[in-house]
Amino acid sequence: MNDDDKSPEERIQELLRQLLSGDAGALAGLQGIPGIDPEQLAALSGMNIDPAMLGELMQQLQRAFSSSGEGFSWELTKTQALRIASEGGLSVSDEQRAELDAALNVAGLWLGEATTISELASDPIVASRAEWVEATLPVWAEVAEPVATSIADALTASLQEQLPEEMQGMAQGAGRMMRGLGGSLFATQLGFVVGQLSREVVSGGDVGIPLMPTGTAAVLPQNLADFGAGLEIPVDQIALFIAARELAHARLFRHAKWLRLHVISSITEFARGIQIDTDALEDLASRFDPSQPEELRAALESGALLPSRTEAQEATLARLESMLATIEGWVDVVTADATARLPKSDAIAEVVRRRRAAGGPAEQAFSSLVGLQLRPRRLREAAAMWRAITDAVGVEARDTLWDYPDLMPSSEDIDDPSRIIASLEARLRGDAPVADEIDDAIARLLAGEDERPREGDGGVEEPGAGADDTGDGGPDGPHPEPTV
Fold it and tell me: Alpha-carbon distance 267 to 107, whole Å?
């Protein structure tokens, strides 16, 4: 059968197989396939992308021919996410804004009794879904770009392997095109995920990581009703609880300015370790059936194209989970104290915990994008640690643990907070803090420097100090280094 006799579906099937397997001959197919319309493309995509969006995607793919291959454009992501966020034409009414503004003001006053961390410098936002997309997209792009790069690299490597030797001169130009192709496909998927999240999240910090700009708190009234559906809890109580939780989260990240970088860098460190499984990619392409897109959808959503985690990734993931649990445990305790006046606060808190324990709105996003499930599995243990610290030393001493990164509770402190409580109690009594290994190493280093003879002082040399510049303890000799 020649190309003219093939149906549109067969042509698309062949094109996708060639593209996914890195066949350079498929590149020409992007410049014009007769008889193909966006409706058919939408049917085979398996990603719930509307035909208009796919039309834009095909234009983006054609622009990939002239792509420089450096970086990625996230305009396609933004367009897709905003389209999904705006479905139904829902917007925030003046009444909703007024009600939530009042809830945020009251929650801010209550938080003043539950934490010594200061108020935000700017007013919290009552945001629409589209406004949430606009505000959070830069962070989504930052944490997702390492995976987009891995996908683009995998497509480029596969293409180079497929090219015959006499066509290797084309590799550089074709490689740039394939990077653009990979980036465009990934940007579309990211836009779909972010758009879906905009219809689920109830606040800026709902996903557990700092998506909003530092010092910005936001609540989405369009999604609050869905959050409270079936709970038989008054909406005004839910609004007050969510407002208090969001303000506590935003205050923490504004106060601990190092914390945002700490979290985001851990996520990107994990993502940079991902290498796409090109064998799985080619195997999927070889048996892909456009009439049954479920396998492609399942592969994208399950992370089947992502290899097993490396040891370095597992270690990063463990640190990240502990960090997120520590953050959310503090937020839980502060929110519980601030909303103690609400009759149903305990019930709302349990809904929030279960929602996060089940993965929350972020799990699908990160698992499909970067193979990373952000489940703070130790959230209850971390909250118990913060409660014990609060009961032992009070709110003010507890909140000083966020002043510097090295004061932040560790995973071991979550298991047993007695060490950190003893340290805080000693500080409150005015006792000298108990020295740890780092303190001892620094003390030895400083002592070694102080004991060196100064030029021309004629004094008696201290024990261990060399008489010349070549002795083991002399100025050029080895000295203890601090253990970090």
Answer: 31
Least confident of 24-33, 60-69, 239-248, 375-384: 24-33
* Residue 204 lies inside a defined structural domain of this protein: yes
Residue type, 80: Q
Bridge partners of 10, per DSSP, are none
In a domain, 183, yes or no: no
Whose CA is closest to 276, among 7, 20, 12?
20
| DSSP string over 155-204 | HHHHHHHHS-GGGGGGHHHHHHHHHHHHHHHHHHHHHHHHHHHHTT-SBT
pLDDT tens, position by position, 169-210:
555 555 566 666 667 777 877 888 888 889 889 999 888 889
CA 209 to chain centroid: 6
Residue 296 located in a structural domain: yes
Is-contact 212 134, C-beta < 8 A?
A: no
Backbone angles phi, psi at 405, to 5 degrees: -60, -35
Encoding tokens for residue 129? 């879904």
pLDDT band at 394 (very low <50, low <70, confident <90, very high): very high
Nearest Cα neighbor of 242 from 384, 110, 85 is: 110
Q: Which of 344, 370, 396 is the last residue of a domain?
A: 370
Domain boundary among 323, 341, 370: 370
Rounded Cα distance between 142 and 125, Å, is 23
Helix 129-162 and helix 360-370, axial crossing angle in degrees, nearest 10? 20
What is the phi-psi region of residue 48: left when phi exceeds 0, alpha when psi lies from -120 to 50, beta otherwise? Answer: left
What would you measure as the largest C-alpha separation in the chain, in angstroms? 100
pLDDT given for residue 189 in this prediction = 77
Domain that holds residue 462: 436-484
Q: What is the 3-state secondary structure (H, E, C) of 315-332?
A: HHHHHHHHHHHHHHHHHH
Question: In terms of C-beta density within 10 A (0-12 exposed, 13-18 middle, 19 or more buried), how is residue 335 classed?
Answer: buried
- pLDDT tens digits for range 65-114: 444 445 567 888 898 899 999 887 667 888 889 999 999 999 999 999 99
Torsion angle in degrees (nearest 10) through CA of 234, 236, 239, 241: -70
pLDDT, greater one: 217 or 44 = 217
Q: Does residue 26 form part of some domain? A: no
Cα separations in angstroms, 215 against 162, 220, 442: 50, 17, 35
pLDDT of residue 256: 94
Identify any residues that bridge with 218 across adjacent strands, giving them in sequence order.
125
* Helix (H/G/I), strand (E/B), else coil: 117: coil
H-helix segments, 306-455: 311-338, 345-357, 360-370, 379-399, 411-415, 418-429, 437-450
pLDDT tens across 314-344, in order? 888 888 889 999 999 999 999 999 999 999 9
Tell me what the mean pLDDT of segment 141-159 comes to.
Answer: 76
**Looking at the structure, do residues 242 and 335 belong to the same domain, yes or no?**
yes
